[in-house]
Amino acid sequence: MILIAKFLFAAIVAAILVGNAPAQGQERDRLPVYLAGSGNEALDQHILDLLKLNLGSQREFILLSDKQAALIDEAPIVTIGPGAFSRIRQANRKAPVLAMLATQNFLDGFTTLSPGRVSGIYYDVPLLRQALLGKAILPQATRIALLSTTGSAALYDTLIDQLQPYNLEARLFIVDDDKQLIPTLIRALSYGDFLLAAPDNVIYNPRTIKHILLTAYRRNRIVIGPSQAYVKAGSLASGYPSFSVMAEMAAAYLQVFFETGQFPAPDYPSDFQLEINQQVARSMNIPLASREQIAQAVERLLTSQEAQRDE
Question: According to DSSP H, which parts of 19-153 are helical?
Fold first, then answer.
């Protein structure tokens, strides 16, 4: 696979630069991969099967209990979900950990403190890509409404600075207690052509999402994001990374670790799928292109700006 080949090449170059002894590489090559599960047996088994498929059947995979985690020294541990990651870090702060199904906001502090030893495949979608998804669906849109708490406002800092080249602007509306949620949301919807939701569990959670979606619907405003699950609940659309792409990338990261003793820096998958709620679109009289056409429109917006920056 192209992605794995790219990381293998990077691993070889890194090994030469840092002067890793062949004996060290051979020793790491015999290490197993430990897996700390999410508690969802079907999900954990699916990811394990995908990792085996991408990394090869010769590698030993071992399901890990929290007690066993304290004893791990140099073998990599793959964690599935933020809960598994937190448990492993509490049990062992020295073990090399590769996080799956955890967002950038959750992982960044850990990966910054332990570069190379803690890394991850981000489970969320870059907010700029989500914003451009809204633009592709509503080409006339120019203003984006954002909801956050004071503590999560930084989630949107990078996005706000990125929007101007796409003829978009955004405004942040702060909610710091439950009583403020709907009144603040109403003000946000009056401003924005659509509401863009980040993976902020304080704002967007099972307790609040029904109220947010109904309020947006009654004011004829769509919600984009924050994930595939929320599209099923009533958001109009969201990008999401597929398990197969995340597993391919995780396998590549593990192979780099076995070659160099270090993980690459955490990153987003290179490819995203698109979930659309057709029923919501019909009820709001929003004409939709095909899923493929919308995805292509997002890619064109991104690549056009990249080309301009390279000139």
Answer: 22-29, 41-55, 66-69, 82-91, 104-113, 127-137
Segment 197-231, tens digit of pLDDT: 999 999 999 999 999 999 999 999 999 999 999 99
Whole-number pLDDT of residue 273:
94
**What is the spatial order of strands in the sheet that 222-224 belongs to?**
169-174, 143-148, 194-196, 222-224, 237-240, 273-276
The Cα angle at residue 282 between residues 278 and 283, in degrees rounded to 5: 115
pLDDT of residue 308: 61
Q: Burial code of 284-294, b = ≥16 C-beta within 10 A, e = fewer?
A: eeeebeeeeeb
Chain segment 278-299, per-residue pLDDT in tens: 999 999 999 999 999 999 999 9
- Paired with 34 in beta bridges are 62, 77
CB 230 within 8 A of CB 75: no
What architecture is domain 127-239+277-310? 3-Layer(aba) Sandwich (3.40)
Q: Which fold has domain 2-123+242-260?
A: Rossmann fold (3.40.50)
Q: Is 204 exposed, middle or buried (0-12, 13-18, 19+ CB in 10 A)?
A: buried
Task: In the chain, list all ranges with CATH 3.40.50.2300.
Answer: 127-239+277-310
* Contact predicate 68/91, CB 8 Å: no
Tens-place pLDDT, residues 24-55: 555 666 789 999 999 999 999 999 999 999 99
The candidate with the shortest Cα–Cα distance to 277, out of 132, 102, 137, is 137
